[in-house]
Amino acid sequence: MRAASVKRKTKETNVEVELNLDGVGTNDISTTIKFFDHMLATFSRHGFFDLMVKAEGDLRHHVIEDTGIVLGEAFKKAIGGGKVESGEREKTVRFGYAIVPMDESIARCAVDIGSIGGEGRSYTVFEADFSKEKVEDINTENIPHFFNSFAMHASFTIHVYARGENEHHKIEAIFKALGIALDKATRIEERR
Ligand SMILES: [Mn+2]
Question: Is residue 113 a contact partner of residue 79, using CB atoms and an 8 Å limit?
Answer without folding.
Answer: yes
